[in-house]
Amino acid sequence: MKPGPRRVDGDSRAGVGGEASDPESAASSFSGASEEGSASERKRQKQKGSTGRRRFGKPKARERQRVKDADGVLCRYKKILGTFQKLKSMSRAFEHHRVDRNTVALTTPIAELLIVAPEKLAEVGEFDPSKERLLEYSRRCFLALDDETLKKVQALKKSKLLLPITYRFKR
């Protein structure tokens, strides 16, 4: 254990011989000494108490942003994909981005269609938030994936270039 700070009997701020010239400065020198003593005691207690224990602070509260369109889905998918490739675990990647697995599974067809076959997007049509929900648009994207596109997607999933996540939709 480290030795504590040295204590000097006289206050170096006082006059010659450690005495103050007027009562006001004497009072201030005593209060200064007591503040220094209590601060050093607090410091010592802090050091003593922190040995061997880890302190965890409150988690930083970051607000989640709701994804509102196909571009947002693609952006979130790519972020999670990058994290998945680093961490080698889908559950950790979802945890890292604070997204539920089912949420990503429901919107995966949109991202995969945009990545693998962007030309099929014309077949599906634009997403209009005033007319339909993102989930319904995702269903339309899923139905637009033909056998050839699905084979491409499966190959990319095996090579870890896409998230190996199963769809929540049935044909």
TrEMBL record:
Q: List the protein's name.
A: Coiled-coil domain-containing protein
Region Disordered: start-end pairs: 1-67
For bias type Low complexity, the affected ranges are 24-37
Query: Would you name any one GO CC term?
Result: nucleoplasm
> Per the UniProt entry, what species is this protein from, by scientific name?
Cricetulus griseus
Which residue windows does the record flag with biased composition (Basic residues)?
Answer: 43-59
PANTHER family assigned = COILED-COIL DOMAIN-CONTAINING PROTEIN 106
Spell out the Basic and acidic residues composition-biased ranges: 1-12
